[in-house]
């Protein structure tokens, strides 16, 4: 079984029980990295919870970084 | 004598806040940061794949703290979530709150801004809102619990300076929290004027990032901020319609017969 998840605007097919950490890993990002954050379905998921937060079918994930601007 | 900037529970030695957007490279940003003497830099949040790392480290290396912002948000809902992402990313509950109304002007949407400010204050944030040069709105933001207000001098990136100095002076009179002139600074004299009007600090981004010589402009604007601050504290003379001779007329010699 797999789940369809929107990650930063692109739909990905991930294996069931994939986590926020797996989604971030698509970009080579780990929760240890400075200046990174993620939200699932409009709610921030703390970095320490990435590995234990599973994604469900239809989840929308945003993985962002602090960058130049403003 | 120290003349530190105090916002909420933090003290800053510089009254110039640096924006990080628009620089040609990370190295040039770092050089400008060093020249500016700034100890606070605002940063945006964007999807990871569109960005490069290293800015956070460059800011830390420059001895400054990061102030996450909500640049690009059009609704209170998006701004609140972006602020929460910034808090998670940078481990700070400070946020420069931006909620804009349209892409062409980048002017704040006052209704959404106030709503977002109220929600973020309730969520424990120290909120520094980018706002219109509107004394009444500034007072509403202060009442909502904002730690400072950041009125615009003119539209973001326009370099038009302070188009309505009177309005900035009224914002200064309207609130007791720090006033940070945000947006519109084009060159050093704009920053000096902001401080002379009573602003507590100036935020500059494009004026420095897009200058031909970024560190030199950072130096110039920092000096202007200091000069304007001194002039404000020194107490300027009132303006008058007619001349007021600085030399007494008493004792003027009569050199030609009338």
Task: Please characterize this protein's 3D structure.
The complex is a heterodimer of chains A (about 70) and B (about 260). Chain A has one helix at about 20-25; strands at about 1-5, 10-15, 35-40, 45, 60-65. With about 70 residues, chain A is mainly beta. Chain A has one domain (about 1-65): Beta-grasp domain (Ubiquitin-like (UB roll), Roll). Chain A has a 5-stranded mixed sheet. The mean pLDDT of chain A is about 90. With about 260 residues, chain B is an alpha/beta fold. Chain B has a single domain (about 5-235), classed as TIM Barrel (Alpha-Beta Barrel). A 5-stranded parallel sheet of chain B has the order 5-4-3-10-9. Chain B has a 3-stranded parallel sheet with strand order 6-7-8. In chain B, strands 1-2 form a two-stranded antiparallel ribbon. The longest helix of chain B has 21 residues, at about 215-235. The radius of gyration of chain B is 20 Å and the shape is globular. Chains A and B meet through strand 3 and strand 5 of A and strand 4, helix 2 and helix 3 of B. Strand 5 (about 60-65) of chain A pairs antiparallel with strand 4 (about 40-45) of chain B.
Characteristics of this structure?
heterodimer; A: 70 residues; mainly beta; five-stranded mixed β-sheet; B: 258 residues; alpha/beta; TIM Barrel; five-stranded parallel β-sheet; three-stranded parallel β-sheet; 9 helices
Give a summary of the structure in a few sentences.
The complex is a heterodimer of chains A (70) and B (258). Chain A is mainly β and 70 residues long. In chain A, 9% of the residues lie in helices and 40% in strands.
Secondary-structure map with pairings?
The complex is a heterodimer of chains A (70) and B (258).
Chain A: E1 2-7, E2 10-15, H1 20-25, E3 36-40, E4 43-45, E5 60-67
Parallel strand pairs in A: 1-5
Antiparallel strand pairs in A: 1-2, 3-4, 3-5
Chain B: E1 5-7, E2 10-12, E3 16-19, H1 26-36, E4 40-47, H2 55-61, E5 65-68, H3 76-90, E6 94-97, H4 110-122, E7 126-131, H5 135-143, E8 150-151, H6 165-174, E9 180-182, H7 188-196, E10 201-204, H8 206-209, H9 214-234
Parallel strand pairs in B: 3-4, 3-10, 4-5, 6-7, 7-8, 9-10
Antiparallel strand pairs in B: 1-2
Helix pairs in contact in B: 1-9, 3-4, 5-6, 7-9
């Amino acid at each position: 079984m797999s789940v369809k998840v929107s990650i930063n605007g692109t739909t990905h097919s991930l294996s069931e029980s994939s986590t926020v950490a797996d989604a971030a890993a698509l970009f080579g990002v780990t929760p240890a990295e400075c200046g990174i954050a993620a939200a699932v379905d409009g709610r921030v998921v703390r970095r320490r919870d990435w590995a234990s937060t599973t994604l469900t079918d239809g989840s929308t994930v945003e993985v962002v970084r602090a960058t130049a601007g403003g | 004598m120290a003349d530190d900037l105090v916002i909420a529970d933090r003290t800053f030695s510089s009254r110039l806040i640096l924006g990080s957007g628009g620089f040609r490279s990370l190295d040039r940003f770092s050089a400008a940061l060093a020249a500016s003497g700034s100890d606070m830099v605002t940063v945006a949040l964007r999807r990871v794949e569109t960005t490069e790392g290293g800015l956070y480290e460059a800011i830390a290396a420059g001895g400054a703290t990061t102030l996450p912002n909500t640049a690009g948000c059009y609704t209170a809902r998006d701004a609140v979530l972006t602020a929460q992402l910034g808090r998670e990313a940078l481990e700070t509950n400070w946020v420069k709150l931006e909620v804009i109304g349209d892409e062409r002007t980048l002017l704040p949407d006052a209704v959404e801004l106030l709503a977002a400010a109220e929600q973020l204050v309730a969520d424990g944030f120290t909120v520094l809102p980018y706002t219109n040069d509107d004394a009444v709105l500034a007072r509403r933001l202060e009442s909502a619990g904002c730690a400072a207000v950041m009125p615009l001098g003119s539209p973001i990136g326009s370099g038009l300076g302070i188009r309505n100095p009177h309005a900035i002076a009224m914002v200064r009179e309207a609130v007791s929290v720090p006033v940070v002139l945000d947006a519109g600074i084009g060159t050093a004299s704009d920053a000096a004027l902001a401080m002379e009007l009573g602003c507590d600090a100036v935020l500059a981004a494009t004026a420095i990032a897009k200058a031909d010589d970024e560190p030199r402009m950072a130096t110039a604007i920092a000096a202007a901020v200091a000069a304007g601050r001194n002039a404000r504290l020194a107490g300027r003379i009132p303006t008058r319609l007619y001349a007021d001779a600085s030399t007494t007329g008493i004792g003027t010699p009569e050199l030609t017969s009338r």
